[in-house]
Amino acid sequence: MNYKHVHVIYFSPTHTSAKIAHAIVEGMGAVSFSESDLTYEMPDSEEVVERELTVVAVPVYGGRVADTAIERLKKFVGKDSPVVPVVVYGNRDYEDALLELSDLLVQQGFTLLAAAAFVGEHSFSTSQYPVASGRPDQKDHDEAFLFGQHALEKLEACSSLESLSSLQIKGNRPYKEKKPSAPAAPLVDASRCNLCGHCIGVCPVSAISIVNDEMYSDPTRCIKCCACVKECPEEARTFPNPFAEYLYKNFSARKAPEMFL
């Protein structure tokens, strides 16, 4: 089977999922590609993805796919479209996230071609407690590129989508329970913050606003992606979290991507 066009879909607050998705698409050598960035808004209406090789990449939060990503992905319906679900996790474990994403895409009408879990810098990573700092790096990019090549080779060897063999993907059903967490949001150092508003633009859930000449982050909306912390040009935002030290002590050893073909 020959698909000349690739459609890439991603939810990527700190850009790690987007980087991996683009590297995979490069490996597929597409003649053309289209992009759906779900990071900042919900699609206005349902979109049918018809006869397009599709790559879907999202981050892992607590071993599951982020609720915001799931909500936005449900706007896409696949029709005769092979799909490559990809999750990006912070070097701890992706647990049931890849299986969950794969199940969702099949439910939405896509046909599974391949799947993978890659590593990106953890949202809670800091200079004091770095966890997968700087990832995805060049090695990750090269492995994602090769994965894209292998996925395309598998598709080209198939006579039809129906002939694709079922994938055995790591994970469990029922998925890991999503336990409620206490509302929290990044702190702002008023002596550094100049109210530039950059953080407002990078927040994927519109949790940040200016109130009484101060930056306010709504803890009931914040999804703890830390995009605003990592992108603040004045380094005025922090997300104090005792979990960061635990991650650093227990999950600093480099983990390799896992691929299912």
TrEMBL record:
Pfam families linked to this entry: Fer4_10
Keywords tagged on the record: 4Fe-4S, Iron, Iron-sulfur, Metal-binding
Domain 4Fe-4S ferredoxin-type intervals: 184-213, 218-242
Domain of life: Bacteria
PROSITE patterns with a match to the protein in the record: 4FE4S_FER_2
PANTHER family referenced in this protein's UniProt entry, alphabetically: ADENYLYLSULFATE REDUCTASE, BETA SUBUNIT, FERREDOXIN III
Name of the molecule in the record: 4Fe-4S binding protein
Organism encoding this protein: Parabacteroides faecalis
Source taxonomy: Bacteria, Pseudomonadati, Bacteroidota, Bacteroidia, Bacteroidales
